[in-house]
Amino acid sequence: MNAAEEQPMSPYERIGGAPAVTEAVERLYRRLLADDELAPFFTGTDLVQLKRHQVALISQVLDGPKSYAGRELAEAHKSMDISVGQYKAVGAHLTAVLEELDVPRDIIDTVGQVLESVAPDVIGADD
Length: 127
Ligand code: HEM
Fold this sequence. Notes:
Blueprint: H1 3-6, H2 11-15, H3 17-33, H4 47-61, H5 73-77, H6 84-100, H7 105-122
Helix pairs in contact: 3-4, 3-6, 6-7
The chain binds protoporphyrin IX containing FE.
């Protein structure tokens, strides 16, 4: 018996590991920067570092390598006054990217649950 048969593949492995996550994050930020309502948030942000952190975080969420070393999400977003609508818009872009890349539905659902669970850490405006 080889090692691959002993354990089910993680979501991270099923979607294609690091290259797939990197491609998803590239596409996500291309969309966010093309969205007139969201792009202004990223003015002045070090996008190389942000993408690196985002790849690490998503990999971790998908049971890949645990290497996220960025700030807590609440700490990173606290002064941005992100509205519920803006939050949902980012989530919709991420979901659309995963669909574009043919990520299996159960994995998209898992990501959706994580997005819901971190919403209170990211949303900062009352509307
Ligand atoms: C949907 C859930 C979200 C997740 C999982 C997430 C995740 C992250 C992560 C991991 C970082 C890097 C933190 C660090 O470098 O220490 C970050 C930074 C950032 N996020 Fe988010 N984010 C989310 C939603 C949003 C939304 C809705 C916006 C704006 C509309 C946003 C705007 C930003 C900006 C501008 C930064 C960079 C902050 C800086 O340069 O200091 N994020 N986010």
